[in-house]
Write a structure and sequence with these properties.
alpha+beta, globular, 22 strands, binds flavin-adenine dinucleotide, six-stranded mixed sheet, 412 residues
């Protein structure tokens, strides 16, 4: 396939400027602010999976002028997809993982711009409070990364947290790192908006299940659709999240694990908005994280551990009594006003975890025109508008930031 030449347009100048100032951006990855330059070559690309990775990739490819078909077995924003949950968080607090923090910072800008472009309310500026017993190495690393990137934060003592957030009992938590710029994204709505923008831009959206089919000369020729028909293209991007190990058991079966996660929403007491947006930030600690109630849905509480292997096609999405009991015990300690409140909603979602929690974005070892994109590992959604541009370039064989390429390679 002939490649078109584009200049990089995916970088939010703010994040890179801050990195640049810190001397952390090698010349090879400095952003070029000139608009994209196109040749006349048009490629046909099929993107499989309309979640955070695939949906945004399809939109970027279409915006670059390619013929793009986006195929999803259950449709964009579906409730089986990891991206089909109601809400996801975006924050730059990432321990020592500077490249993800930098990507998240770029994504914050991109989300704001896309929200305007789509004309749909997608973002809630909640802030995020990371709780820890003391200045753990991970919290120190987060502080250092945020400082490097110029992301505002506040370090609170337990005494300060008691004063500022009387609705929370910080017992056992000596430090709270507040990132005021963190936000909650309406995830399902966002994925619907992305697919609508894709169709409006001239992309083709199909609800169908597909599988790789004919391979000739080390290239995938076509996909087999469940109805027996075929789909051909120059290039294919498989962004199938937790389905990737099923589709490519040989290459990804041992690399991506798919555990289930219960997500619980507890109703607030009548007339009490102390734990509703915007009166309380997102919170996280070792065992649990969650969000204040948004749109009256309830206070979101998620355990950081959960069931083992989950099948995203067939498993029932019913929360376990054990997780309910554990969450209540946690609330009784940390948010006592919710301890006896009823569950108002619940979801069961699944992760697609790699061992080191890095994404996997790389060529299939036996099919040169197939890009695998997944392994979100519990933190992929926020990066969508940026990672979609990155995956699009990788699918076309264009130059990308080599430090990121290295981090997300298959063979690691
Ligand atoms: C409980 C929980 C909380 C999380 N919280 C956050 C958070 O706060 N912030 C954050 O950034 N990230 C978070 N994540 C992670 C984030 O949600 C994921 O990394 C991201 O949504 C993964 O997107 P994806 O596109 O890879 O997969 P998916 O969203 O699962 O999309 C894959 C799509 O592929 C389709 N598909 C699969 N197989 C086929 C096939 N054969 N043919 C056609 N279509 C197919 C599916 O229907 C699906 O729509 C969380 C994850 C979980 C589980």
């Amino acid at each position: 396939m002939q490649r078109r030449t584009f200049l990089h347009a995916m970088s939010a100048p703010l994040g890179l400027a801050a990195l640049d100032r810190a001397g952390l951006v090698p010349a090879s990855v400095r952003p070029v602010s000139a608009p994209a330059i196109r040749t006349n070559q048009r490629s046909s690309v099929v993107v499989i999976g309309a979640g955070a990775f695939g949906g945004w990739t399809a939109l970027h490819l279409r915006e670059m002028g390619h013929d793009v078909t986006l195929v999803d077995a259950y449709g964009p924003g579906n409730s089986r997809a990891t991206s089909g949950d109601e809400t996801r968080q975006i924050r730059c607090g990432y321990g020592d993982r500077l490249l993800y923090a930098r990507s998240a910072l770029r994504a914050m800008t991109a989300w704001r711009e896309r929200e305007q472009q789509f004309g749909v309310a997608l973002l809630n500026p909640t802030g995020r409070l990371q709780l820890a017993p003391d200045w753990t190495p991970s919290l120190k690393a987060t502080q250092s990364t945020l400082t490097t990137l110029g992301v505002p934060f506040e370090a609170l003592t337990d005494g300060e947290m008691r004063k500022r957030y009387p609705q929370m009992n910080p017992d056992g938590m000596g430090v709270g790192l507040l990132e005021p710029g963190a936000m909650v994204i309406r995830a399902k709505q966002a994925m619907l908006a992305v697919s609508q923008a894709f169709v409006k831009a001239g992309g083709t959206l199909r609800v169908a299940r597909v599988q790789p089919s004919t391979v000739t000369g080390g290239r995938l020729v076509d996909l087999r659709v469940d109805d027996g028909s075929r789909l051909t293209a120059d290039a294919f991007v498989f962004a199938c999240g937790p389905w990737l190990p099923k589709l490519f058991p040989g290459v990804l079966g041992a690399r991506i694990q798919v555990p289930g996660r219960d997500v619980l929403y507890f109703g607030l007491p009548a007339g009490d908005q102390h734990l509703a947006f915007p009166n309380f930030p997102n919170f996280s600690e070792e065992r649990y994280y969650g969000f204040a109630s948004i749109d009256g849905r309830g206070f979101k509480v998620c355990p950081t551990s959960g069931t083992t292997s989950f099948d995203p096609d067939v498993d029932e999405r019913v929360i376990s009594a054990t997780e309910v009991r554990r969450a209540r015990a946690y609330l009784a300690q940390r948010f006592p006003s919710l301890a006896n409140q009823p569950i108002t909603e619940s979801r069961v979602c699944q992760l697609e975890n790699t061992a080191d929690e890095h994404f996997i974005i790389d060529r299939h070892p036996e099919m040169a025109n197939v890009l695998l994109a997944g392994g979100g590992s519990g933190h992929g959604f926020k990066h969508g508008p940026v990672i979609g541009g990155y995956i699009a370039k990788r699918a076309l064989g264009e130059q990308t930031e080599s430090d990121f390429d290295h981090m997300v390679r298959l063979a690691r």
